[in-house]
Amino acid sequence: MKSFLHTILLIVLIAGGSSNINAQCLDLVKTTGFNKLNTELYVPEGRFDALTLSEGDNLKVYKSFFRGKTYKIVVIGAENMPKLKFQVKTMQGNVIYDNSEDNSDNWEYTSDRNQNLMITVEIPSNSDSQIDTGCIAVLLGYKM
User: Fold this and answer.
1) pLDDT tens figures, 25-48
2) What's the CA gap between 144 and 141, in Å, rounded?
3) pLDDT one-digit tens code per residue, 79-104
4) SS3 102
5) Residue 29 to residue 32: CA distance in whole angstroms
6) The dihedral sign for the CA sequence 125, 64, 141, 102
7) Beta 85-90 vs 95-98: how paired, if at all?
8) Pairwise CA distance, residues 32 & 130, whole Å
9) Region of residue 136 (left: phi > 0; alpha: psi -120 to 50; beta: else)
């Protein structure tokens, strides 16, 4: 019975910690992400991608883009995270945007055809020995 109670307590702690992480990501998206997306001009896509990652991690997100629509991609991280590097690539791996050229956290794109694109995010490592962990979010909105 005692081990059963320990198992239940462990599950509750894991679930509580998980919801705390999700709450942090949701807060980042609501406070920073939607402001950078500019929801007065861009309608947010039905979902966003937000994960807790560490320095040195990479993230790939696949999104569909439709001909004639103008989109805005926003890539943000928690305040403790280093400046994020992101690229937008075709499914064949051709880079169509790289934020290292302008150091921006967003990019506006008008698609000339229906297509799926891959957004890759790299979280660079800091030079110090401490590895930071935080929420990284990728938002997509389209202009009405």
Assistant:
1) 899 999 999 999 999 999 999 888
2) 9
3) 888 889 999 999 999 999 999 989 99
4) coil
5) 6
6) positive
7) antiparallel
8) 25
9) beta
Closest CA to 132 of 52, 13, 15, 61: 52
Q: Name the residue among 87, 109, 110, 83 with its Cα closest to residue 98.
A: 87
C-alpha to C-alpha distance for 24 and 30, rounded to whole angstroms:
10
Task: Please say whether the beta carbons of 123 and 60 come within 8 A.
Answer: no
Helix ranges (H only) for 29-92 are 34-37
Contact of 122 with 77, CB cutoff 8 Å: no
Cβ atoms of residues 116 and 89 within 8 Å: no
Q: What is the mean pLDDT of the chain?
A: 84
Mean pLDDT of 46-75: 93
37-61 burial, b for 16+ CB within 10 Å, e for fewer? beeeebebbeebbbeebebeeebeb
Name, in order, each residue with C-beta under 8 angstroms of 129's C-beta and a sequence gap of 6 or more: none
Cβ-based neighbours of 127, under 8 Å, separated by 6 or more: none
Indicate the DSSP class of residue 31. Answer: I
